[in-house]
């Protein structure tokens, strides 16, 4: 299957790929050296498919040429297009964000610097939340190492066009693991428990991640907060990087607070309460202001004490 999609401008594929290279130290996503090609195995609805997106970078517009090979299940062309739209946040109207941000000279400068940068999200919420849990309290490089080890242990590897691509483990594959197997990979005891216990809750139907798509941000927070290992910051990151929600504010995030300190030229890092007060002026685009402030520091989201 092949699709050609012309994103609504502003859209900058290279900036998005460059962000991924810095933020995702895993073998699950492959990005070409020229930042114009993206490859990975995607889970979407009940289908699993190989996705290769090549960007034709023209002066006034960009085109995404999508090559798709279905590996399992059924995938209609409109579903494949929906998956691509979700991954690259193509339904987000950045012009509206830039117009609103333009009323503040600091935000306007950020938008000019990162013009066209959109979220690149996961389509599988289980994969997304497991990766976020793994990233708690560790740096990006070690988090990527742990994700790769988990994938090699419980996932699959397939050959596509002469190269090997990894598939992130399914819920059942992680639910079948013992804590000791993750401890041998340098997972902490707690993280091993958090990840395997979550998989088991999903496998037995206690937790239904697919139901989250129909819930508000606050409803999702209240649904997931009772689960071990999942605090507010973890859920906020899921809302941003797993679901692409445009108005999420991880106010406790150290990276965000440092970005505000730098951009607003403050003497000290603002408190969580001060961030929430300032961010009232960012509605309904708090995710994108946060994302651009993170990017201004060229840093990953920094985990607060209670993730």
Detailed description of the structure:
With 307 residues, the chain is of the alpha+beta class. Among the domains are: 2-91, DNA-3-methyladenine glycosylase AlkA, N-terminal domain (TATA-Binding Protein); 125-156 and 166-242, Hypothetical protein, domain 2 (Endonuclease III, domain 1, Orthogonal Bundle). Helix content is 45%, strand content 15%. The chain has 14 helices and 7 strands. It has helices at residues 13-23, 77-87, 94-101, 105-113, 125-134, 140-154, 171-175, 179-183, 189-203, 217-224, 232-242, 254-263, 272-278, 286-297, and strands spanning 2-5, 29-31, 37-44, 47-57, 62-72, 156-160, 163-167. Strands 1-5-4-3-2 form a 5-stranded antiparallel beta sheet, covered by helices on one side. A two-stranded antiparallel ribbon has the order 6-7. A hairpin with a 4-residue loop joins strand 4 (47-57) and strand 5 (62-72). The radius of gyration is 19 Å and the shape is globular.
């Amino acid at each position: 299957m092949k699709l050609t999609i012309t994103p609504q401008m502003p859209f900058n594929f290279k900036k998005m790929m460059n962000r991924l290279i810095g933020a995702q130290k895993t073998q699950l996503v492959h990005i070409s050296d020229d930042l114009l090609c993206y490859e990975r195995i995607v889970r979407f609805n009940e289908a699993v498919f190989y996705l290769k997106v090549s960007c034709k970078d023209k002066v006034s517009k960009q085109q995404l040429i999508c090559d798709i090979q279905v590996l399992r299940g059924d995938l209609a062309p409109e579903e494949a297009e929906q998956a691509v739209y979700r991954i690259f946040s193509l339904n987000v109207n950045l012009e509206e964000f830039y117009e609103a941000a333009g009323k503040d000279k600091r935000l306007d400068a950020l938008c000019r610097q990162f013009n066209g940068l959109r979220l690149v999200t996961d389509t599988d919420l289980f994969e997304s939340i497991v990766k976020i849990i793994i990233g708690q309290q560790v740096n990006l490089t070690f988090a990527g190492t742990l994700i790769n080890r988990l994938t090699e242990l419980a996932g699959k590897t397939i050959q596509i066009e002469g190269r090997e691509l990894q598939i992130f483990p399914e819920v059942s594959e992680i639910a079948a693991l013992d804590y000791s197997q993750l401890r041998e990979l340098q997972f902490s005891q707690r993280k091993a428990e958090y990840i395997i216990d979550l998989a088991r809750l999903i496998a037995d139907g206690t937790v239904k991640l697919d139901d989250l798509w129909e819930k508000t941000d606050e409803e999702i927070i209240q649904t997931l907060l009772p689960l071990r290992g999942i605090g507010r910051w973890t859920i906020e990151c899921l809302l941003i990087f797993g679901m692409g929600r445009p108005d999420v504010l991880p106010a406790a995030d150290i990276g965000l607070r440092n970005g505000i300190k730098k951009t607003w030229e403050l003497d000290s890092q603002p408190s969580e309460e001060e961030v929430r007060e300032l961010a009232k002026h960012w509605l309904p685009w708090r995710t994108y202001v946060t994302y651009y402030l993170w990017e201004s520091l060229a840093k990953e989201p920094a985990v607060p004490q209670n993730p």
